[in-house]
Design brief:
Layout: E1 2-10, H1 27-39, E2 46-47, E3 56-66, H2 77-80, E4 87-95, E5 107-116, E6 129-131, H3 137-144, E7 149-152, E8 167-178, E9 181-188, H4 195-207, H5 215-222, E10 237-243
Parallel strand pairs: 3-10, 5-6
Antiparallel strand pairs: 1-3, 1-4, 2-3, 5-9, 5-10, 7-8, 8-9
Helix pairs in contact: 3-4
Length: 261
């Protein structure tokens, strides 16, 4: 058996998230069908992270095992010829059995792209989040600093989260304004279900002047999800960064995405 690792990008619109569903509406369903067509066999594809409905990926990493011998280009161009619009393989590598897309990952990163403008998006509808009132990015940055480090993130955890522990180490939380857009970056050893979207909802309340920056620290200490803001829209959320041990020599991010830098 050969273990192949691929890098993917996809638009969350039109899919019911990454994880396979009985109705076949997930990104995983599309990728497994396309890989299977090239492998001439049913193939299971395992990803680094299970993005939710409407969440995008500038870089998703996945692996699968096959018994056939194919050139690496077949796992890129060949697979892409069987994929629907909105999802594409960026690169492929052959690796060894010690690699696991999910369990070997040392760090993951998400970027939330937020349009801060009185008028809702048209051209980028479904691809960016939106808030109509002016937001103070500096105040949001000060609030985000309260989240850095290893903490119990229960206040930002979805009720249906299946993670064994709510404790995660958030290594980066940064908000940068670029014109009418806010680019909000989060990197951690792992994320809880809806964690970034729940943090975004609370950060926006700070940016809008509804809460002080210290409120994020109070929410974190409380461990009470009911005290935090509602879960924010999935539209602007992108999986952007996955780090593996250096000996696997895999790209950590993709520069193809317009908001990558």
């Amino acid at each position: 058996m050969r273990r192949i690792v691929i890098g993917l990008e996809y638009r969350g619109q039109g899919f019911c998230g990454w994880q396979s569903q009985p109705q076949g509406c997930a990104v995983q369903d599309a990728v497994e069908a396309a890989v299977g067509a090239i492998a001439d066999a049913k193939t299971t594809v395992t990803a680094a992270g299970r993005t939710d409905t409407g969440v995008h990926a500038a870089l998703q990493v996945a692996h699968f095992d096959v018994s056939v011998e194919r050139p690496l280009t077949a796992w890129v161009r060949g697979v892409n010829s069987h994929l629907p619009e909105g999802v594409a393989v960026l690169w492929a590598r052959e690796t060894d059995a010690s690699f696991h897309a999910r369990f070997a990952a040392l760090q993951r990163g998400y970027r939330y792209v937020l349009l801060n403008h009185p008028v809702r998006p048209g051209l980028n509808a479904g691809l960016v989040g939106w808030h109509h009132r002016p937001l103070d990015a500096d105040a949001m940055n000060r609030a985000a600093l309260h989240l850095i480090g290893q903490h119990d993130f229960s206040a930002f955890r979805a009720a249906e989260c299946q993670a064994k522990s709510p404790v995660k180490e958030l290594r980066r939380a940064q908000v940068e304004r670029r014109g009418e857009y806010l680019l909000c970056d989060f990197q951690a050893d792992g994320f809880l279900h809806h964690m970034v979207r729940n943090i975004m909802g609370s950060l926006i309340q700070v940016g809008a002047g509804m809460q002080p920056a210290e409120w994020l620290g109070e929410l974190l200490t409380s461990r009470d999800r009911t005290l935090a803001a509602p879960t924010f829209d999935a539209a602007g959320l992108y999986l952007t960064h996955i780090r593996y041990p250096a000996h696997f020599a895999l790209p950590e991010h993709s520069d193809r995405w317009p908001f990558a830098t």
